[in-house]
Inverse folding.
């Protein structure tokens, strides 16, 4: 029983390429469920067995990558474990290889530079071709980034038969992402997220072909990022200076763990609002609020009128730009509350001098403009929340505007792309909002390009993000709350736009979530039912 | 700083009994947060230290229980671990006992029968008195059930100071539950719940002084209860006959684990509706539905017109009554769909013979009546969902009616108690319904006795239950979804009715949830913030 339809025209659904060769396949292959669905694929009832004793994932002879490519070596081991189970012992090639066995998967990187030691980027080529046939399956990709995606797909094709054996059907896949930016936002300020939780979710992201970890690392409530230049920021601004911080080594580990899975780490240091915790370790950075003619003792957004502010930002972002290798930094710029600025006489004076009148958006823009200029000198691109665009700040051409306000999304996308800027969409995917029932369907049926605009404009929408803000989320509940709800966003951003049938998505997603569970991710159930292997992690 | 207010008249808030003796106490004692709040208590700034090397929990000389009381021995070990941490090594009384040390907690059972080997019941005395003073604290209770509650309270009084030492303030507590039935409903049919999850939640229940585990063990979707008399019920009716069943040994373990914590296991075998899974292993039990004049191949509720049905129920409940030691069995009786009965010509004929006309509620009552008579012969009491009462079934005087429909709750409580039946309330506490934000406040502010009725009627409301139905819940997300939301219900059912200030509840509950986290329960956060020891379980 060939089971997977194709989303692309010209490919035939449920096409049988060859007669059934392994008798137990019929029912077992119904278990195969690819998520997200590849762009083009063809599968068959012709099934091969994988022997845990002899099956190998190897570099193809023609590959430009070899055993020195630790990213792939690491991935080979990881996917071997996913296929055969971590705990399963196996002999050393003691078993014979039978005729019906799939002996190996050859991974062939075709570009001169396989990018083994590089970082994934917005421009990374994640496409791959996968041919599963006897006795050898071949995975081809231009770079390691496509190979990682193909390895995930290969592992999803393998299914267990009734005798506990691993099988795979003859299959042909050509795949590539619809959108280049497929992100998950986690917030480590409202609640500190232990490293273990972050790493587990990077694993889950790879299982869903996400490629950006948007790390909303600091905010009003706490500043867990340990800066070498300004150690007081976390020492005084974190929930706890030792147990609730990310040391430089922690950050490095997150970045490397993500790189190994083809995931960018996009750090966000949001300002001038959302900075209350910054003020604890950096005196004078925030605006003193006034009550009448005297300071009230409370503080508002970053003080935009002092040179010391910009000196601080210059040094701080210089460090940040070296800590985070990604070509982009997210600078925030959302939800600036003007009341404190309004109360402060020095700010008012500055507003007069600059001729801003009473338009505090102009003051905000003034600050952001100077900040962007500072960050530009670090040779980083920047991402910002939509207010920065809305307020008319002058932006570099490669700026990415993140559309998050869930009113007039279409209009906003129209405006941002109409002005020639690239955009990513997160407005419909605020996964911190929970409700009873299957809300994944709501996330799944969003079509990001449903706004009015030219083909050129649509090309400027480079992806989206599922955001799990941290007000109600910490290590206890984050992972089951995020998965498989975010998986719905994952398929929307990877697969063809015509892959949108909720019914067939349900069937695949049920199985995909059980696969995540089996791999140790406590992804919650979609609805009534069971997994052959239930979660046993706690 | 004395920190805990009292809810009872005549007790003075923040009363200092003695001067401060340990300097580090001032801030650290702010960490103490009792949950649920005891009925009467008095505390002081006078603090004592607990040495992990020398502190002991022991049987008082006067106690009617001694080292042969394994329930208490087990509890002493458990609470020692909660206080000093599981992993902490300690010497064998090598340290000196200092003047300011609390040397031991003496537990004194005062009744002739301490009930060490008994099961908790609706009539168990859970009251206790706790006096913490130097050099010995004394916990007095009539039976082990009160001692268990007092041990939990004692452990909650202990707080860690800035040097990692454990301290406790001079305290005097007299406590008892407001309601006798304080339950949690878990549903192991919509999703199978591994034993580990059930046991973890029994632990959490004890931390919140719940005393009934309402085990909605089977339903339409699966029949995981392994019956010795009718093994096909689970073999054919469970999601999987080996991996997704509760063996007799499993059930025994749940019951014993619960008993050790003073928790009753109230098993529910719901009929005549919600029985689809029963039909798989017991041919002829369910009503064949008809399409026109021929059977449609589908099945409805239990077939109430066959003698074989009652023979089966007699044998089945005979087994159930021996497997579950509790004095009550929950027989369900909710949501019976009449359409299948209506379609069946044999049922119609029976209705005519009995003179039921077209009133299928009479047929339902007929079935339930016979079932109740069967169960009565096992000497068990029974609980039923409210429909059974609403439909006018004749009930034994000790029947407990569970009010679950969240419309006209007050009217229903009035009617049930007005008819002289005891009632428990679960309608406002369906915790499977989730929403964004702090819904625990909604659960917390429910007042169960807010209906019009005499004092006699109010006495008939013996408690309530927080219900976590299983449609969207399994091992991956159950525990953080249940806690600390169910804790709100726990305090409502234990503490005085005047304990209802949401603000002070918030402060205590934040700390109580961190305590649960520290004890290994992944209780989710109420809102922004942190725990000194974050969850590290996965």
């Amino acid at each position: 029983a060939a089971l997977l339809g194709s989303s692309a025209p010209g490919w035939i659904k449920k096409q049988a390429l060859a007669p059934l060769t392994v008798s137990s396949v019929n029912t077992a292959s119904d278990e195969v469920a690819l998520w997200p669905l590849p762009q083009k694929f063809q599968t068959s009832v012709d099934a091969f067995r994988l022997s845990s004793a002899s099956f190998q994932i190897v570099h193809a002879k023609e590959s430009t990558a070899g055993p020195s490519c630790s990213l792939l070596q690491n991935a080979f081991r990881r996917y071997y474990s996913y296929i055969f189970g971590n705990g399963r012992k196996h002999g050393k090639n003691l078993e014979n290889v039978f005729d019906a066995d799939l002996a190996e998967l050859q991974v062939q990187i075709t570009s001169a530079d396989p990018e083994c030691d590089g970082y994934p980027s917005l421009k990374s080529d994640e496409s791959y071709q996968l041919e599963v046939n006897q006795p050898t399956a071949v995975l081809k990709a231009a770079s390691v980034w496509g190979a990682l995606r193909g390895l995930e797909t290969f592992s999803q094709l393998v299914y267990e038969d009734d005798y506990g054996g691993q099988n795979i059907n003859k299959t042909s896949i050509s795949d590539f992402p619809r959108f280049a930016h497929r992100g998950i936002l986690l917030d480590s300020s409202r609640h500190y997220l232990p490293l273990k939780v972050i790493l587990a979710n990077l694993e889950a992201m790879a299982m869903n072909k996400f490629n950006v970890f948007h790390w909303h690392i600091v905010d009003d409530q706490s500043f867990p990022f340990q800066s070498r230049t300004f150690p007081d920021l976390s020492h005084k601004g974190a929930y706890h200076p030792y147990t609730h911080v990310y040391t430089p080594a922690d950050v490095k580990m997150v970045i490397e763990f993500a790189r190994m899975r083809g995931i960018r780490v996009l750090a966000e240091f949001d300002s001038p609002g959302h900075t209350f915790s910054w003020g604890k370790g950096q005196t004078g950075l925030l605006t003193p609020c006034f009550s009448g003619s005297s300071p009230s003792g409370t503080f508002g957004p970053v003080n935009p009128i002092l040179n010391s502010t910009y000196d601080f930002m210059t040094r701080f972002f210089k460090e940040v730009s070296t800590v985070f290798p990604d070509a982009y930094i997210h600078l925030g710029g959302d939800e600036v509350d003007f009341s404190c600025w309004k109360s402060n006489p020095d700010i008012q004076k500055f507003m007069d001098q600059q001729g801003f009148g009473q338009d505090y958006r102009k003051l905000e823009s003034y600050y952001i403009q100077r900040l962007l200029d500072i960050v530009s000198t670090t040779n980083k691109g920047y991402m910002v929340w939509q207010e920065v665009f809305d307020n008319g700040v002058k932006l570099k051409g490669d700026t990415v505007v993140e559309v998050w306000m869930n009113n007039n999304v279409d209009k906003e996308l129209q405006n941002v792309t109409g002005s020639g800027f690239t955009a990513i969409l997160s407005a419909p995917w605020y996964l911190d909002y929970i409700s009873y029932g299957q809300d994944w369907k709501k996330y799944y049926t969003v079509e990001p390009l449903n706004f009015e605009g030219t083909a050129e404009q649509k090309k400027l929408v480079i992806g989206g993000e599922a955001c799990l803000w941290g007000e109600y989320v910490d290590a206890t509940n984050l992972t089951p709350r995020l998965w498989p709800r975010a998986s719905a966003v994952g398929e929307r951003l990877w697969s063809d736009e015509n892959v949108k049938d909720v019914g067939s998505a349900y069937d695949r997603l049920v199985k995909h979530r059980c696969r995540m569970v089996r791999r140790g991710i406590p992804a919650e159930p979609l609805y009534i039912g069971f997994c052959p292997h239930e979660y046993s992690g706690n």
